[in-house]
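User: Run a structure prediction on this.
Assistant: Running it now.
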Amino acid sequence: MTTLDQALSSYEISMLNNFLKNASIDTSFTKDICWFDGYLCAINNSVELIAPSEWINEIINENFTFESIEQAETITPLAMKLHDGIDNAVRNKTYIPIYNWHNFNNSEDASQLELSARWAKGYLLGNMMVNEELLELDEVKVALMPIVISSGVVPDKELEKDDLSRIEMVAKIPRVVQVMSEFRNIMRERND
């Protein structure tokens, strides 16, 4: 059984994280390894298979060029390795978001909530890009609510007293990923 922490070493995660921070399209927030993990998780949970040439454009801007051939030959396989590791972990029901297991003590001392919010934003963007059909289902909208709340899109003060807190929602993310995987499988069977 493959787990994500077997797919990439800490050094590889750090290399990919540094690359993502420098190559981001959007300057309103930094895309990092947590964001990318969520984004690729959604890409892997899409109803249709998505080619790397389609999802790679979201992480680098159109004017971006690699610093060298060596950088391209290093980063591209790392991105694919993370993609494949997530896919294997989700299929084997061992997926745990990267912010739960990777040591981020050198990443601006970001809190668990900040890291999970980055992951959730990546996941939501990935879903909006590739799962339009799936997102129309009421069951999916309900299932995604923990990720929406974890993203910080809904400020804590706007949550109802009866609602679970962001911390409680973050704890539900691995289960939501599995539920989304099950929805994806149903939709793929329906489309065949």
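The mean pLDDT is 79.
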